[in-house]
Please model this.
Amino acid sequence: MEIYRLKNGDSLIDELKKFVSRKDSGIIVGLGALENLTVKLYDLKLKKYQEKFIEGPLEIGSFTAIVAKDVQGNMDIHPHIVVCNREFRSFCGHVEKAIVGATFEFFYCKSNNAASRYFDKNIGLNLIK
Model:
C-alpha cells in the first residue's frame, strides 16, 4: 500500500489519471475536501448518464476508484464519491470532475491480478472482464 496527497487547486480526476498511468490494477481510497464537483448517475434504461454540478466547499466522506486497463489498453480509474456540503446534505455518484479543496489524501493498493475492461453493449458501459 502506498499513501499520497493532492493539493488545493489540483484537478482530482486529471491528477489521478496521471498517477495510475504508471501503476498496475488496484484500488484507490481517499478523503479530503473539494472546491466543487461534477457527478454522474447512469440510467440503465436510457443507457446514458445524468450529470449534476455541486458547488463547494465539500467534505469527502468516501472516495473509491477501481484501477484497471480501459478498452484501449491504458490504465484508467472508475471513481465514485460521497460528499456533503455546508448544510450537511450528501451527494454521491460517479466522479466526472472535481477540484481539490484543502487536500485530498489517498492510498493506492495494487491488485494481485490484472484487471481490464470491455464494452458491454447490453449494459452500455465498459465493465471489468
Remarks:
- The longest strand covers residues 48-69.
- The radius of gyration is 15 Å.
